[in-house]
Design goal:
The protein is α+β, with helices and mostly antiparallel strands. The protein is 27% helix and 27% strand. The strands form four sheets. Strands 5, 6, 7, 14, 15, 16, 17, 18 and 19 form a nine-stranded mixed β-sheet that branches. It has a six-stranded mixed β-sheet with strand order 9-2-1-13-21-20. β1, α1 and β2 form a beta-alpha-beta unit. It binds flavin-adenine dinucleotide. Flavin-adenine dinucleotide (FAD) binds next to α1, α7, β14, β19 and α9.
């Protein structure tokens, strides 16, 4: 076990590995990433890997746009594959009054150079003929989207960081963060202390285990999400858009063989963070939502299922940056269900804060932990609450 590093990163999911990669790319190479299990063994390995940049908040669009740009050309950036597959991204709302939310997304996206279009129901059917649209008021499409393999992303970032000098250690749980006189001095592991003037918390759902050692906790909810995958349907082509029904809280993307990955967003408190078990009772609800929206899915069966944990903040925005409790301690927590798509932007922002003192590529000052103390948190800004 190394006993010293310039930066220790705790957590080897997409966020920790992206931070390691971006630090080394900025020239800070004495980086030690400590992962208590295997890389991508937390939320990352359970994600469905959707990459898109449509959000109702500037900061998320900025982060997700960086995400799309990096993940869609990952081999050029890192030398490794993200197994990225381009697909259009379609989202719809059921109520006329929610059209305003889609218009807001389009206006915000325009400021960031996104090419999104508002769609009438008849235009939605052209894009996705199997979709039922009689209860849809409007839709939005963004052609610049796709899906990736989150395992590949974490491993690609980690391997590229290693190539540039970072050390990646798996099976090393960090027991606590060490601070003296208001400054971080390292971390405690079973193998002993590691001295470091900078420690990054990228521990995903376990973030508060580390934060508590410095005397504070983030206001996060840990929700368990269920995924079910159908067999392919011979009449549903394999390249249908990634689809989110904002009103029904239902989402869909296809595997390469045409099988349909189905998700239904319901906030169920997580019990087992390390090994969340599939809740087969939930299958009926997901299948109902799926068949309502894509009736042909009634002719498929469920071929695979898994579940995973998401870490939600009250305003569905991540928590990024330093905290006043200990100088040198940085948070990269609360990814609120979209951590894969923003992992490049988060990695770059945290790396810039550490190396240059501020994140000049993307302004994430609104995402500091301070917003919860001062009550200035942005209102419902993530994927699911933001329609108002
Ligand atoms: C079902 C599901 C579908 C999803 N779909 C999408 C999607 O389509 N697109 C998208 O962008 N996002 C999606 N997400 C969200 C995404 O998976 C997460 O936001 C993202 O993976 C968070 O990454 P992370 O690195 O912060 O956390 P994690 O991947 O959980 O990584 C944290 C790591 O820290 C390690 N760790 C924790 N404590 C310690 C410690 N004390 N010492 C050492 N190591 C420690 C853990 O073992 C873990 O490996 C989905 C999530 C789920 C569950």
């Amino acid at each position: 076990m190394a006993d010293r590093a310039d930066v220790v990163i705790v957590g080897g999911g997409v966020i920790g590995t992206s931070i390691a990669f971006h630090l080394t790319r900025l020239g800070l190479t004495d980086v030690l990433l400590l992962e208590r299990s295997q890389l991508a063994s937390g939320s990352t390995g359970r994600s469905v890997g959707i990459v898109e940049a449509t959000f109702g908040t500037d900061v998320n669009v900025a982060l997700a746009k960086l995400g799309y740009e990096e993940l869609s050309r990952f081999p050029e950036v890192t030398g490794y594959t993200a197994d990225f597959h381009p697909r259009p991204y379609l989202e719809t709302v059921g109520l006329e009054r929610h059209r305003a939310y889609l218009e807001r997304c389009i206006n915000i996206g325009r400021r960031h150079g996104l090419r999104q279009r508002l769609l009438k129901p008849e235009e939605i059917v052209e894009l996705f003929p199997e979709l039922r649209v009689d209860d849809i008021a409007a839709g939005l499409v963004n052609e610049e989207a796709g899906f990736c393999d989150p395992h590949s992303v974490a491993h690609g970032y980690a391997t590229a960081a290693k190539r540039m000098g970072a050390r990646i250690r798996t099976n090393v749980p960090v027991e606590r963060v060490l601070a003296e006189r208001g400054e971080v001095v390292g971390v405690l592991t079973a193998g002993g202390n590691v001295r470091a003037p900078v420690v990054v918390n990228a521990a995903g759902p376990w973030c508060n285990d580390l934060n508590r050692s410095l005397g504070f906790e983030l206001p996060v909810h840990l929700w368990q999400r269920q995924i079910f995958v159908t067999t392919p349907h011979p009449e549903i082509p394999r390249d249908r858009p990634i689809y989110i029904d904002l009103s029904g809280r239902f989402y869909f993307r296809q595997e390469l063989d045409g099988g349909c990955v189905l998700g239904l967003v319901e906030d169920i408190a997580a019990k087992d963070l390390a090994n969340p078990e599939t809740d087969w009772q939930f299958k009926t609800k997901v299948v109902e939502a799926a068949v309502h929206r894509v009736p042909k899915l009634a002719e498929t069966s469920i071929a695979n299922a898994w579940s995973g944990i998401v870490t939600f903040t009250p305003d569905q925005l991540p928590v990024l940056g330093p905290v006043r409790e200990a100088k040198g301690f940085y948070l990269a927590n609360g990814m609120s269900g979209y951590g894969v798509m923003i992992s490049p932007g988060v990695g770059l922002a945290i790396a810039e804060m550490i190396v240059r003192g501020d994140s000049r590529s993307v302004d994430v000052s609104a995402l500091s932990y301070e917003r919860f103390r001062s009550g200035t948190g942005a209102r419902g800004a993530g994927l699911w609450l933001s329609q108002g």
